[in-house]
Amino acid sequence: MSAERSTRIPLCAPRLDGNEARYLAECVESGWVSSAGPFVERLEAALAGLVGVPEAVATSSGTAALHLALCVAGVEAGDEVLVPALSFVAPANAVRYVGALPVFLDAEPTHAQLDPAALARFLEERCVRSRCGLRNRETGRRVAALIAVHVLGHPVDLDAILELARGAGLVLIEDAAEALGAHYRGAPIGSFGDLACFSFNGNKTVTAGGGGMLVAADPEQARRARHLSTQAKRDPVEFVHDAVGFNYRLSNLQAAVGCAQLERIDELLADKRRVARGYARALADVPGIVAFREADWARSSHWLTGVRVVEERFGMPSRGLLAWLDARGIETRPLWQPLHRSPAHAGSSGPPCPVAERLARETLCLPSSCGLAASELEYVAGAIRAASRVLAA
Ligand SMILES: *Cc1c(COP(=O)(O)O)cnc(C)c1O
Fold first, then answer.
1. Which of 306, 266, 326 is nearest to 9 (CA)?
2. d(CA 143, ligand 1 centre) in Å
3. What is the three-class DSSP state of 48?
4. Which residue among 47, 175, 337, 339 has the greatest number of ligand 1 atoms within 8 angstroms of its CB, and so is best to mutate?
5. Ligand 1 atom nearest to 66, measured from its CA
């Protein structure tokens, strides 16, 4: 292993050396700092153009975008919404915000995405078609929607999932928070679902220091979401509100940073791809370290590069490697507790999810900043190889 480093290598730090500071200064100088302003509109237009949809609605977070998506999709209290067990918690929380209940489905092991076979099995074995839509045979509840999360920026198998969702009459919401810039069979992620959500959180590929975006195939749904995001204000003079809305707008300050980031998204994505390829190459011959393959129909955004640490072959569980790397100044992170195990969603129904559990146990996300230097990547890979050698000795 190479010499000790004086600074830690973070999991994922933003790169803010473009027009971020200049655009922020423009906001301050012009006085446009709040939830209206030229950068909000510019960011909405730029994202809509990138995803290839007519309209995008900026929101205060990706989670807020998910909440609005469920509202305009007509998901109601007491409904069930299908969510992958292997995901960040936000989509499951959004389901609960509207009083609906998440039902968690298993992942497939190759790309760590929602398993179309698990979805097919659930629809076939546990659901029945009725006059008012799909019903869960066990709970009697209406199954209203599916949130497909593109985990770590790799697309789910959309052909299979769209066919199943359409066949069952489910609304499809893409959680593309990790997948801005990813493609499925050449078409942009976010252009497939009835609705799709993005995030500009601090550690996402394109950040605004916080924020999100909702896109809708139906312009009427986009209009409705925008209305709900601004407290459902119908008359701005008399303050007449025609629904219980939310304060979910993005500020012009945040949008300014987002615009500067989005201008160079090609560069940021190329950086992420370089990092993923670098790790795959550097770790290819380490026994028990398995990189997730990019499907031939996929172009991943490579938001974070995850590897599976297969304990029986590597000689140490993933959390042991996490501690080993931490002691060498390298920040790594597991995926998430599978959501069917989450205390926040205790009592949720659904089939067993053994693959999600194994992937959550085995996966470590490696430092994946856009600005990660080749020497830093080599240092991380070297530390993993060193652990492997010590364990083999
Ligand atoms: C980051 C993220 C979100 C939430 O985005 P915020 O902007 O942090 O609210 C939702 N879903 C997934 C899969 C995410 O990774």
1. 326
2. 23
3. helix
4. 175
5. 10
Token digits of residue 287:
């026994």
Q: Is the CB of 206 under 6 A from ligand 1?
A: no
Give residue 90 CA to ligand 1 midpoint distance, Å: 6
Å from CA of 360 to ligand 1 middle = 18
Residue 214 CB less than 6 A away from ligand 1: no
* pTM over cut 0.85: yes
Which residues, 6 or more positions from 60, have their beta carbon under 8 angstroms from its beta carbon? 210, 211, 212, 247, 248, 249, 250
- Count other Cβ atoms within 10 Å, centred on residue 343: 6
Q: Please identify, by atom number, the ligand 1 atom nearest to the C-alpha of residue 149.
A: 13
The encoded tokens of residue 338 equal 């599978």
Q: Which atom of ligand 1 is nearest to the CA of 303?
A: 15
What sign does the CA torsion over 307, 301, 342, 13 have? positive
Structure tokens at 54: 């007519």
Q: Rounded distance, CA 366 to CA 11, Å?
A: 6
- DSSP helix/strand/coil, 108: coil
| Among 250, 259, 196, 229, residue whose Cα is nearest residue 20 | 259
pLDDT tens-digit map of 281-340? 999 999 999 999 999 999 999 999 999 999 999 999 999 999 999 999 999 999 999 999
